[in-house]
Design brief:
Strand order of the largest sheet: 1-2-3-5-7-9
Number of strands: 9
CATH superfamily: 2-enoyl-CoA Hydratase, Chain A, domain 1
Largest sheet: 6 strands, mixed
Protein name: Delta(3)-Delta(2)-enoyl-CoA isomerase
CATH architecture: Alpha-Beta Complex
Number of helices: 11
Strand content: 15-25%
Shape: globular
Oligomer: single chain
Distance between the termini: 46 Å
EC number: 5.3.3.8
Family: Belongs to the enoyl-CoA hydratase/isomerase family.
Helix content: 40-55%
Order of helices and strands: EEHEEHHEEHEEHHHHEHHH
Structural class: alpha/beta
Keywords: Lipid metabolism
Number of domains: 1
Catalytic activity: a (3Z)-enoyl-CoA = a 4-saturated (2E)-enoyl-CoA; a (3E)-enoyl-CoA = a 4-saturated (2E)-enoyl-CoA
């Protein structure tokens, strides 16, 4: 599950659980995240920001394949259908983040794999700890193709073709310092506490600008035309400046 807390001008969305929780994305967690993001949107004002963080050794280990298998009653075809259902549901999370009217920061305090990595990359900024955790797109190793919105986000957010190749076609497990070099994340920090501290500093710096959230969201959407096309979003011109 997840919790939502506001401290000053910053919203904290925390993926919660015990130390072994992998924060796998099943319909329940996806619905919880979307509910939290809806609340963030409804409470947004000028000069707010969102930080997403997770408890334990994982940021998120992707879709909950164990849930799909157990819910399917032992039917492989039904398990695949349930996986497809999760893919469809998670598209809404990406859409919510891409259209959220404020800056967003992922504080990656543990492993981020597959849909868990995409969750992080759907934020404006990604910060990661260097002492533990990897980024990993596991689909090529598991024998699965990528949903169209996965590849759209990676292509739009990562400017280096070799980095896109290594992540999607090689299934490379990337640690924080290398992820900075490849352009997958913005910065690496010594441990989980330092990641969160850096995320808060960045959030405070951004909120001081007191940007109009609607304008910010529309500029973000216009910046990533491939993503908004795949998600079915539209960008619209807004002028609120005093001319």
């Amino acid at each position: 599950m997840c919790t939502l807390e506001k401290r000053g001008s910053i919203f904290f969305l925390t993926l919660t659980g015990d130390g072994a929780d992998e924060h796998r994305l099943n319909p329940t967690l996806i619905a919880s995240i979307r509910s939290a993001l809806s609340e963030v949107k409804s409470q947004s004002t000028r000069g707010t920001a969102l930080i997403t963080v997770a408890e334990g050794k994982f940021f998120s280990n992707g879709f909950d394949l164990a849930w799909a298998k157990s819910t399917s009653g032992g039917s492989p075809s039904e398990a695949i259908n349930l996986l497809r259902h999760m893919v469809t549901l998670f598209k809404g999370v990406v859409s919510d983040l891409i259209s959220l009217p404020m800056p967003t920061i992922a504080a990656v305090t543990g492993h981020a794999a597959a849909a868990g990595l995409l969750l992080a990359m759907s934020h404006d900024y990604v910060l990661m700890r260097r002492d533990r955790g990897v980024l990993y797109m596991s689909e090529v190793d598991m024998g699965m193709t990528f949903p169209d919105y996965f590849t759209a986000v990676v292509r739009s957010k990562v400017s280096k073709p070799d980095a896109v190749r290594d992540v999607l076609l090689r299934g490379m497990k990337v640690k924080a310092d290398e992820a900075v070099v490849k352009g997958l994340i913005d910065s690496a920090h010594d441990n989980g506490e330092k990641v969160v501290e850096a995320a808060v500093r960045l959030g405070e710096e951004l909120t001081k600008r007191r940007w109009d959230g609607e304008v910010y969201a529309e500029i973000r959407k216009a910046l990533y035309p491939e993503i908004i096309g795949v998600l079915g979003l539209t960008a619209k011109p807004i002028v609120k400046a005093r001319i």
